[in-house]
Amino acid sequence: MTEEHHDLQSESCRGVSRVLARIGDKWSVLIVMMLADGPRRFNEMKRMIDGISQRMLTLTLRGLERDGLVSRTVYPTIPPRVDYELTPLGHSLREPVMALGQWAQANLDHIADAQARFDRRTAAESEPAGLRPVAY
């Protein structure tokens, strides 16, 4: 592999990493799913997303807008009304996000079982040598 080819792959990997970081964080996924049904106001989303702060919602929406996934429309009313909705690019993200959510839902029990096995194993490994149960 030439050094020039390696540089292109590195830049491509960095670009993909940035995109995945944006669309892979928990708030972005929730916002994309929420906007899949149509435009929503900021405060409506804040009420619907348990645990998100106003600042985090603002930052996430700005990032999604910057990446072309969400559009922001300001209506000249008093007080101003601001709606957020998915762009065509954002709508194209719905299917993979929904598939990932469905996979997570279908595998919650398997993941919980794996976590419990891991926790038991690591707890047993951290016990003093004389107190560990002997495995046969």
Task: Describe, in short, the structure shown.
Residues 13-112 form the HTH hxlR-type domain. The chain has 136 residues and is mainly alpha-helical.
Question: What descriptors fit this protein?
Answer:
elongated; 136 residues; 6 helices; mainly alpha
Question: Can you walk through the features of this model?
Answer:
By secondary structure, this protein is mainly α. The chain has helices at 3-24, 26-35, 42-48, 54-66, 88-106, 108-126; strands at 40-41, 70-75, 81-86. It has a 3-stranded antiparallel beta sheet with strand order 1-3-2. Strand 2 and strand 3 (81-86) form a beta hairpin. It is elongated. The model has no long low-confidence stretch (mean pLDDT 86).
- Unreliable stretches, pLDDT < 50, 5 or more residues? none
Residues in helix, % = 55-70%
Estimate the strand proportion.
Answer: 5-15%
Give the SSE order as H and E letters.
HHEHHEEHH
Keywords: DNA-binding, Transcription, Transcription regulation
InterPro entries: HTH_HxlR, WH-like_DNA-bd_sf, WH_DNA-bd_sf
Protein name: Helix-turn-helix transcriptional regulator
Pfam family, one: HxlR
How are the elements arranged and paired?
Elements: H1 3-24, H2 26-35, E1 40-41, H3 42-48, H4 54-66, E2 70-75, E3 81-86, H5 88-106, H6 108-126
Antiparallel strand pairs: 1-3, 2-3
Protein name: Helix-turn-helix transcriptional regulator
Keywords: DNA-binding, Transcription, Transcription regulation
Domain HTH hxlR-type: 13-112
